[in-house]
Every structure is written in C-alpha cells, then in structure tokens.
From TrEMBL:
It is a multi-pass membrane protein. The chain crosses the membrane at residues 36-58, 70-89, 130-149, 156-177, 189-209, 221-240, 252-271, 283-303, 309-328. Putative solute transporter. This is Solute carrier family 35 member F2. It comes from the Eukaryota. InterPro entries: EmrE-like, SLC35_F1/F2/F6, SLC35F_Transporter. GO terms for molecular function: transmembrane transporter activity. One of its GO terms (cellular component) is membrane. It is found in: Membrane.
Length: 367
C-alpha cells in the first residue's frame, strides 16, 4: 500500500512538472486541436505552392525575389490597408501612424529583410545548412515571447519542440542520402550567418504579428504590413532588381507563375494571423516545418526527386510534436476584450472568404 501511495505521489509530481496534472485525454484531443492541426497544414500547403512556383521560375532563369515579395505586399496594401483608410476614429490609419508608425516600420523592415536574407543565403551555403539553421527561429521566438509577451512554457512544450526538431533532422538526413544538397558553398560562413540573421528577423516579425492580432486586430497587422512592406520592398526592388526586370523576356507562363506565387503568399499572410490568434507564433512556426516536406512530395512528381521513407517518418514526427505542443496551452497575459470586437467589425464579407513567417522563402527556395 505504501509503495502504491509513493508511486502515485511521484507520478503526480512528474505530471505537475510537465503541466499534465489537470488534463485528461478528452480535454486534450478536442475538435479545436484538430482544427489547429489542419489549419497549420493548410499554411504549409500554401508555402508549398510558393515553392513550386519558385522552382519553375528558377528553371526559367528568373531571379527576382524582391519583385515577388513586392507583389504580395502590394496585394495586402490594396485590400487591408485600404480598409484601414476607410475607418474612422482611433481605428483610422492616420491615427495609428501618428502613434505607432515606427513600430510598424520596424515590423515591416524585419519581415522584408528576413525574406531577402534567406534568399541571398542560398548563393553562399547549402540547402542542408539552411534547413538546419532556419530552425533557429523557434528558440529565438520562444525567448522573445517569454521576454515581451510574458508567455510561460511548460516542460511538455520544450519536449514538443525537441520532437519537431528531430523530425527536421530526419528530413535533412533523407536529403543527404538522396544526394539533394542544392545551393552553393562559396562562402559558408557568410551564408550561414545570413540564415541565422533571417531567423532572428522572422522571430521579430512573428512576435509583432502575435502581439498585434491578439491585442489589436488582424486587419491592422495586415494593413500596416502591406503599407510598410510595399514601401520597403519597392525601394529595394528599384535599387537591386531594375536591370533584371528590364532585360527579362516576359511571357504568359512567367506571368502565370508570378500570379501563382503572389496569390499563395497573399493567402498565407491573410490566413496566418487567424492561426496565430488561435495558438501562438511559436506553434505556427512548428507547423511550418512540414512545408519543406510538402514541397519535396511535389518534387517527386514534378521534378523527379528521389523518394526516401525518412520523409514519411519526418512528417509523422513533426506532426506529433506539433500536436503535443498545442495539446497543452501556454500561460500568457490575456489580450484586451476589444481585440475580439475589433476583428469582427474590421472584416468585411469579402475578407471572411479569404483564408486569414514568414518563413515561406526558406521552403520556396528549398526545392
């Protein structure tokens, strides 16, 4: 009897340390969790769409990453920024810019430069390095969330992240066995540094996204991202890619690829805040780890990649880690009540028909 009591106490302490003591299976595996998993994989599929279009653009000799980003930001500008312009009172765009313009400028700058840095990294380092180092965004984001959003993670969340990273390791191992090590090795230190820089910038951008959509509104985040993203990417486009755009022989197929890329990115940016508000930016980044796998599965049919069973193992392991992370909520300060009502009043019927890291360029160029 005493042994059973001691064993129960030990189990109770372990459960309390992991954050499991107040949960049973019925409270963990809910429809909300299933919806979160499905929505996370929809984000990965959208990134896969950008990856396929990027691969075909690369085969066609098109090297205009900033133009591609500019099109996405311009679409956000034409929809969400326009909605902000039609608002009155404190929700009007001029009022927002007067009080918080510099915050949204930094957010847009971080997002644009994160996309550009990871694309440039492929000129200097290999695909394997990018896939491994890009995961650095997750611990950085967890640290920033703890410091600025006061999010408290439990032991089970760190275990879930470790499981997801093991899945990434299996994916990279499959790439090595299949002989897929695209990219360059002309300056590995510079390339790896650019990947780490992009991971930090993505973490900053994702942190700003989570704070804005949970405390303000999804439309405000997307409107400001469209405004400042368009301005910043437009300047860089004029400086860096004007010559490339001018000499390019444009045809209908190229235009179709640009349209596919822009629409997938627009849907990704529009849909991601919805998932972030339901979960967290960290959880979304964990779900995006499967984007490379979806791209590889498409590559098996479109680009004749070599199949490996490790890809299936990787997908299962990453998905299991994502489910584990979302099964147990983190502790953070609740957002103001007005954020909920702001979202409902901000979105028009046309926006509800649109599915609402920024890590899309990594998966897009990984093909």
């Amino acid at each position: 009897m005493m042994e059973e009591i001691t064993e129960d106490r030990l189990c109770g302490k372990c459960k309390a340390a992991c954050g499991l003591h107040s949960y049973d299976l019925r409270s963990i595996f809910t429809w909300r969790l299933l919806k979160t998993v499905v929505m996370g994989q929809v984000l990965s599929l959208l990134i896969c769409g950008t990856a396929v279009s990027c691969e075909y653009l690369a085969v066609s000799g098109v090297r205009t990453p900033m133009l591609q980003s500019f099109l996405n930001y311009a679409l956000l500008l034409l929809t969400y920024t326009f909605i902000l312009c039609t608002r009155k009172g404190d929700s009007n765009i001029l009022k927002m810019l007067k009080n918080k313009w510099w915050k949204y400028l930094l957010m847009g700058l971080a997002d644009v430069e994160a996309n550009y840095a990871v694309v440039k990294a492929y000129q200097f380092t290999t695909l394997t390095s990018v896939q491994l180092l890009d995961c650095f965004v997750i611990p950085v984001l967890m640290l920033l969330s703890r410091l600025f959003l006061k999010t408290r993670y439990r032991l089970v969340h760190f275990v879930a992240v470790a499981v997801c990273l093991l899945g990434v390791g299996a994916m990279v191992g499959a790439d090595i066995l299949a002989g897929r090590n695209e990219g360059s090795a002309s300056n590995v230190i510079l390339g790896d540094g650019l990947v780490l820089l992009s991971a930090v910038l993505y973490a900053v951008s994702n942190l700003c996204q989570e704070h804005t959509v949970k405390n303000q509104s999804r439309v405000e985040f997307l409107g400001m991202m469209g405004l400042f993203g368009t301005l910043i990417s437009g300047v860089q486009l004029a400086v860096l890619e004007t010559h490339e755009v001018a000499i390019r022989n444009w045809d209908g197929f190229i235009f179709m690829l640009f349209a596919l890329y822009a629409l997938c990115m627009y849907a990704l940016y529009s849909f991601m805040p919805v998932v972030v508000k339901m979960t967290s930016a960290t959880a979304v980044n964990l779900s995006l780890l499967t984007a490379d796998l979806f791209s590889l599965f498409c590559g098996l049919f479109l680009f004749h990649y070599q199949f490996s069973a490790l890809y299936i193992v990787s997908f299962i392991v990453i998905t299991a880690g994502f489910i584990l992370f979302n099964a147990f909520p983190t502790n953070s300060a609740p957002p103001p009540n007005r954020a909920e009502s702001d979202d409902h009043t901000a979105a028009s019927p046309s926006l509800h028909s649109l599915p609402a890291e920024s890590q899309m360029v990594t998966a897009a160029t990984a093909l």
